[in-house]
Each structure stands twice: as structure tokens, then as C-alpha cells.
TrEMBL record:
Function: Catalyzes the ferrous insertion into protoporphyrin IX.
Main subcellular localisation: cytoplasm
Protein name from the UniProt record: Ferrochelatase
Catalytic activity, reaction form: heme b + 2 H(+) = protoporphyrin IX + Fe(2+); Fe-coproporphyrin III + 2 H(+) = coproporphyrin III + Fe(2+)
Record family assignment: Belongs to the ferrochelatase family.
Transmembrane segments: none
Biological or metabolic pathway of the protein: Porphyrin-containing compound metabolism; protoheme biosynthesis; protoheme from protoporphyrin-IX: step 1/1
Originating species: Turicimonas muris
């Protein structure tokens, strides 16, 4: 039995090719042009996006990307490649012949190009799609499914598809996050009476949740599981939402204003993690390590610790490969 015609495709959000205004503008145009991300009148939004948002936001975002860019390139891309390499080694041992690669929802390599290449050029008959979004949202995993369906509609021969919808409450993921946090405390120091753990999830407009998006419910479930795994009392942690865009009401409480309020009320130390992200990126490095840190310390806080994403940590990849094995079992080729 072999898996030599089976591929696993990990899908991350994507990144500009370079930290230049031109490259960032191209990326933002695709990202913010996705109707799953911005749910407004498409004709009106296209005008606003191209005439107002992109000319103003692209240079601003390029400066932000420049602060986190590495010699190897975008942190999100670098960490995604490390993750896929590590998962390929682990899954390859469990499922001989299995091939692992990645695609980006926005930018390159695109889902369309990767799926077409795997099936039409390389002959893979079965594809497991793994969005690197622990929580399901129409804005993320739903959009990945849209992109997949768009390319499948153009293919006369189509591969067999399986897809991981979410893993926000999977024991492997909760265990890995809890270990990441507890390992930090063992190495650094315990949280202490005047410290608080902040679980900062990516935000979204409240209206999306009101229409039925399950994202917020999944963040509540996940954060409770993490707190329980760490044996935290209710006053030792808080769940917040970051990355607000525009003037609409988004999920609350907002991360940065909450940090400022905590500092003013006497919280001296913040340890913060971002459970919406598997790999570190602009939102974790620049928004949390940079802007949120400054806001907390300027408001009177004394210590701010960002705990990195799981990225390609060995213990996480071991647990993740066991979890994905459940989706691959029984999919082998009969010899």
C-alpha cells in the first residue's frame, strides 16, 4: 500500500513578494478585493479600494512590512516553508510516498496553480487541503474553499479532495499551545499576581458573526480549553481581538485598548499569545510585538512578553502530524 499519488497542501494567508509599496499594493488588492473579507456592495467597494484604500494603505503597510522583513524574506513564508518541510518528514514516515507542499490564499503560490500542477502535471489523484486557520471563518477557510472550487470548475479531470475544516478544539492543538505557554513560564518566570495572560485572536466585524459565522464561538471554546489546560483562574487571563480595520464595530474587547486599560488598573505584566495564527506574521510581529507592546508600556505597564506562534516547533509538528493522520487513514492506493 502506498500514498505516492496523495498530496497534502497546507494553505496559509499569503504575503507580499517584497516589502515595497508596489508589491504590497498587489497583495492588498487581491486580499481586500475578496468579497469574503469585505462584505459590502462590490461595485462601490472596488471604487473605494482602488481610488482611496490602496493608494493610502499600500505605502503605510510597506513600511510596516519593512520592519519585520528578514534576509530570507517574509516571516510568514519562511515559517510556512519550515512547517511544511517538517510535516513532510513526519507524514512521509507514516504514509510512504506522501507528498507535502503549500499554497497561499493570496499571492503565490496560488491554490489554483498548486492544485492544477499536482493533479494535471504530476498525476496526484488525492489531495488533502489543510488551511492553517485553527478556527473556521467564512473570511478564511470559507475563502480557501471558494478558491478551490473556482479552480475545480475549470478542470475536466478533478482530484479527490479532503479538507480540514478547523481544529480549534482538537487536543493536539490545545496541548501544543498550552505547552508553548507553560514552557515560556518555566524558562522565564511564573505569571505572578500582577500578571495576566492575553489570548489575542484576530478580529472580524460583529455583523459577520450576527449573520452566522461561527468564528467567535470557536474562539470562546478554544480559549476556555487553553485556560483549563493551564489551570488558570478567571482573573489570570483574558480573551481579546486584534487587527480591526475600518470604522465598523468588530468583535470585542479590542486588544490594544484592553492592554492600556489593564496597565492603568495596575496590571504590571502581560504575556500574550495569538491563537489565530499558526505562523508568525505581520499581525504578530509588528502589531503585537511592536504597537501593542508600546501601548501597554506607555500606559504604565512594566513587562510585556510576546509568546511566539507554534510555527515549526518539533512538539507541535509531532502532534499535528498525528492529527492529520486521522484524515489520511484509509486513503492509500491499493497495490
Amino acid at each position: 500500500m502506498s500514498y505516492d499519488r496523495t498530496a497534502v497542501v497546507f494553505v496559509n494567508l499569503g504575503s507580499p513578494k517584497e516589502s515595497t509599496p508596489k508589491a504590497v499594493k498587489q497583495f492588498l488588492k487581491e486580499f481586500l478585493g475578496d468579497p469574503r473579507v469585505i462584505e459590502v456592495n462590490p461595485i462601490l467597494w472596488k471604487i473605494i479600494l482602488n481610488l482611496i484604500i490602496l493608494p493610502i494603505r499600500s505605502p503605510q503597510s510597506a513600511k510596516r512590512y519593512e520592519t519585520i522583513w528578514t534576509p530570507e524574506g517574509s516571516p510568514l513564508v519562511v515559517e510556512t516553508e519550515k512547517l511544511v518541510g517538517g510535516m513532510g518528514q513526519r507524514l512521509g514516515k507514516k504514509f510512504p510516498g506522501l507528498f507535502c507542499t503549500y499554497a497561499m490564499r493570496y499571492g503565490d503560490p496560488s491554490i489554483a496553480n498548486v492544485v492544477r500542477n499536482l493533479h494535471l502535471e504530476k498525476g496526484f489523484q488525492k489531495i488533502l487541503l489543510v488551511p492553517l486557520n485553527p478556527q473556521y471563518s467564512a473570511t478564511t477557510t470559507g475563502s480557501v474553499m471558494d478558491a478551490l472550487c473556482d479552480v475545480l470548475k475549470t478542470m475536466r479531470s478533478q482530484p479527490e479532495i479532503r479538507m480540514v475544516r478547523d481544529f480549534h478544539n482538537e487536543d493536539a492543538y490545545i496541548e501544543a499551545l498550552a505547552k508553548s505557554i507553560s514552557d515560556f513560564w518555566k524558562k522565564h518566570s511564573p505569571l505572578g499576581e500582577k500578571g495576566k495572560l492575553v489570548l489575542s485572536f484576530h478580529g472580524m466585524p460583529q455583523s459577520y458573526v450576527n449573520k452566522g459565522d461561527p468564528y467567535q464561538d470557536q474562539t470562546v471554546v478554544e480559549s476556555d480549553l487553553i485556560a483549563n489546560r493551564l489551570n488558570l483562574k478567571s482573573d489570570q487571563w483574558i480573551r481579546t481581538y486584534q487587527s480591526r480595520f475600518g470604522k465598523d464595530v468588530w468583535l470585542q474587547p479590542y486588544t490594544e485598548p484592553t492592554l492600556v486599560e489593564l496597565a492603568k488598573k495596575g496590571t504590571e505584566r502581560i504575556d500574550i499569545v495569538c491563537p489565530s495564527f499558526i505562523t508568525d506574521c505581520l499581525e504578530t510581529h509588528e502589531e503585537i510585538e511592536g504597537e501593542a507592546r508600546k501601548a501597554f508600556l506607555d500606559a504604565g505597564g512594566k513587562e510585556f512578553n510576546y509568546i511566539p506562534c507554534l510555527n515549526a516547533q518539533d512538539y507541535w509538528l509531532d502532534l499535528f502530524s498525528d492529527f492529520l493522520g486521522k484524515h489520511l487513514n484509509g486513503w492509500e492506493e491499493q497495490s
